[in-house]
């Protein structure tokens, strides 16, 4: 069994309202040192396969088709 | 300036409906090898400070007070 970890982040050029809300929240709680905040997703997937190179391709396909909206989001993944 | 990366994940003992939905979606798209899926948050925070040990404590406080719900979520962070 392999484990894939996928990180989905909003592209730098796209506004991140959730990140702005978190930034505002932290400021109002006294964390004045907080600059830009970006919020993304962190997805752990168990894969019932042992073929690493096939898994690599399959996880890429999952990201492109479902996990990330590639118009506004970037993704990267690790297999372990 | 330091950059903190925070990972917030749902505790193993807590149900993850979003993860189940993603798992179901991947199955119905033909990714039959997909086992358990867990969805968490990935937060990047710019910190306008150079004091690493102070930043460490401050980020821990941000996690405890705002970023994670420690009743149902775990968190970990890295400073770079």
From TrEMBL, chains A, B:
SUPFAM superfamilies: PurS-like. GO terms for molecular function: ATP binding; phosphoribosylformylglycinamidine synthase activity. Gene3D superfamilies: Phosphoribosylformylglycinamidine synthase subunit PurS. Pfam families: PurS. It is found in: Cytoplasm. It catalyses: N(2)-formyl-N(1)-(5-phospho-beta-D-ribosyl)glycinamide + L-glutamine + ATP + H2O = 2-formamido-N(1)-(5-O-phospho-beta-D-ribosyl)acetamidine + L-glutamate + ADP + phosphate + H(+). Pathway: Purine metabolism; IMP biosynthesis via de novo pathway; 5-amino-1-(5-phospho-D-ribosyl)imidazole from N(2)-formyl-N(1)-(5-phospho-D-ribosyl)glycinamide: step 1/2. It comes from the Bacteria. It is an enzyme of class 6 (ligase). One of its GO terms (biological process) is 'de novo' IMP biosynthetic process. Its EC number is 6.3.5.3. Its main location: cytoplasm. InterPro entries: PurS, PurS-like_sf. Keywords: ATP-binding, Cytoplasm, Ligase, Nucleotide-binding, Purine biosynthesis. Part of the phosphoribosylformylglycinamidine synthase complex involved in the purines biosynthetic pathway. Catalyzes the ATP-dependent conversion of formylglycinamide ribonucleotide (FGAR) and glutamine to yield formylglycinamidine ribonucleotide (FGAM) and glutamate. The FGAM synthase complex is composed of three subunits. PurQ produces an ammonia molecule by converting glutamine to glutamate. PurL transfers the ammonia molecule to FGAR to form FGAM in an ATP-dependent manner. Part of the FGAM synthase complex composed of 1 PurL, 1 PurQ and 2 PurS subunits. Belongs to the PurS family. This is Phosphoribosylformylglycinamidine synthase subunit PurS. It comes from Paenibacillus thalictri.
